[in-house]
Design a protein that fits this description.
This protein has 472 residues and is an alpha+beta fold. It has two domains: 2-37 and 442-471; 59-422, no CATH class. It contains ten helices and 20 strands. Strands 1, 2, 5, 12, 13, 14, 15, 16, 17, 18, 19 and 20 form a twelve-stranded mixed sheet that branches. Strands 3-4-10-11 form a four-stranded antiparallel sheet, with no helix packed on it. A two-stranded antiparallel ribbon has the order 6-7. A hairpin with a 4-residue loop joins strand 3 (101-106) and strand 4 (111-117). The protein is elongated. It starts with a helix and ends with a helix.
């Protein structure tokens, strides 16, 4: 009887030990299985989860615009006072709803090339008004004329055309005209061929961004979605030195197994440069754990605060020998037009940039850019890209509309917030196919290990107690 009891206790302890060992072994084995599955499913080729979502995003992406309505246009033009602006919006458009085009796999280089078509559909229910709402904004053509044509004689000729067309430093335009284009009366009078249609995002609809060529990850998963070339080139030809490099992905996804210490690099054609984000916090998005990566303040900092930015400093008049921060001169990729990009409301910009403008209220929560990345797959499941479009306006002795200006202005025209969040249906599918299976495997591992250890300890204690009674 004693033997049977002891044998049973030893048997129970052995079973517990086996369960614990099996649970322990399952951990690295399970991790290997997960990695193998993820590596297979994030490759950009027909039949994978990644490819299906990459060709056409299952997320509704919206681009909201806030327009800076100038309140004192005559006063500014006559006396060079501070520009008083009032933010109006949001005006919302649905974007990125079109599938990628001209998708071509290259088995030799393990890359896939594509075009990203552009399209914008106005969403009245998500907007503060209509596309016919009118604003007082900077006259884009007049402001650019003094910058593009510094020659005094040419400016004199242009001045006569500006006066004849009754154009001035500021103009009244509808939302639709300002964003997507209008026929400018001043440019229409220029006697030689020039583009006469002007708009902040003209042309946009029925155009495409690219060609992009990205690595599909088939030979090296750590390179998946990383851009190899853009428009056939590995560099942009806009910036000197390493600033001209095309780094990272397009931010829709990143190579899998993202760690908090990783710096996520991505390229944005909107700002004509590569940029990066750093880990900010752990979040929970519809039951899916994600890492929030933030665009750091030093991304647009002057070389004094961030020496790595020295090759983005191009305009000594505005940047005061590269000591001002917060704006990026992208005129080289805008056909010479004096376009400057910043964060909304000049967030993180130097005081000399923001001081000439009244009515701004920068804050991190509303105006910072972030990416919520699922760390195992590297997929971006939620994002907010926030940018402000500004134009440089210089005084001009020959152009009367700009003659009374005493100094340079960087005038905010509008800011945008492009956002996307994984839909409920896609989130449920993601939980089932990815996080759910991983959590289940982890739960099984912990149960086996915990039950095994408890059984082993309990049976061994009972066995020792029985042995002790027999000896006594």
């Amino acid at each position: 009887m004693g033997c049977n009891r002891n044998c049973g206790l030893i048997g129970g302890a052995v079973i517990g030990a086996v369960l614990a060992v099996f649970g322990g072994i399952l951990m690295p084995v399970g991790d290997m299985l997960i990695q193998k599955t993820i590596k297979k499913e994030v490759v950009l080729e027909e039949g994978t989860i990644a490819f299906q979502n990459w060709v056409k995003t299952g997320t509704d992406v919206y681009r909201q615009f806030w327009i800076f309505d100038v309140q004192n246009p005559e006063e500014v033009a006559a006396n060079s006072t501070k520009i008083k602006v009032k933010q109006r919006g949001p005006y919302t458009y649905r974007v990125r709803y079109l599938a990628k085009q001209n998708i071509t796999q290259d088995s030799e280089t393990h890359t896939v090339s594509f075009l990203q078509p552009n399209g914008a559909i106005f969403e009245p229910s998500l907007s503060a008004g209509t596309e016919n709402d009118t604003f007082t904004v900077l006259n884009l053509a007049v402001a650019a004329a003094a910058h593009l044509y510094p020659n005094a004689f040419v400016q004199g000729v242009l001045n006569s055309l500006i006066k004849k067309s009754k154009s001035s430093m500021f103009q009244n335009r509808t939302l639709k005209e300002l964003l997507w284009g209008y026929n400018d009366p001043f440019l229409s009078l220029v006697p030689y061929p020039v583009p006469t249609t002007v708009g902040v995002f003209y042309p946009y609809n029925n155009t495409a961004d690219g060609v992009y060529k990205v690595f599909n990850g088939k030979d090296d998963i750590s390179k998946v979605a990383i851009i190899d070339t853009y428009k056939g080139k590995k560099n942009l030809s806009y910036w000197p030195s390493y600033c001209d490099m095309i780094n990272g992905t397009d931010a829709a996804s990143f190579p899998p197994f993202v760690e908090k210490t990783r710096i996520l690099q991505f390229f944005s054609s909107d700002i004509c440069r590569s940029i990066y984000a750093v880990f900010g916090a752990e979040m929970n998005l519809k039951g899916i754990p994600v890492y929030r990566f933030l665009l750091p303040s030093k991304a647009f900092a002057s070389p004094l605060q961030n020496p790595d930015n020295y090759c983005f400093c191009t305009e000594t008049i505005i940047s005061k020998n590269c000591t001002s921060s917060g704006v990026l001169d992208i005129s080289k990729c805008k056909d010479g037009r004096p376009v400057y990009i910043s964060l909304p409301h000049f967030l993180h910009a130097s005081a000399d940039i923001a001081d000439p403008i009244e009515g701004l209220n920068p804050n991190e929560e509303e105006h910072s850019t972030y990416l919520d990345v699922e760390p195992i797959t590297g997929f971006t499941l939620r994002f907010a890209k926030r940018l402000q479009v500004n134009m440089l306006v210089k005084p001009s002795k020959k152009i009367e509309a700009l003659k009374q200006l005493k100094y340079n202005y960087i005038v905010p025209v509008l800011w945008l917030n492009e956002t996307g969040t994984i839909g409920d249906e896609k989130a449920e599918m993601f939980r089932k196919q990815v996080t759910g299976k991983i959590n289940l495997l982890g739960l099984v591992e912990m149960i086996l290990l915990s039950v095994g250890v408890v059984m082993f300890i309990a049976f061994m204690i009972s066995y020792c107690a029985c042995r002790s009674k027999r000896v006594n």
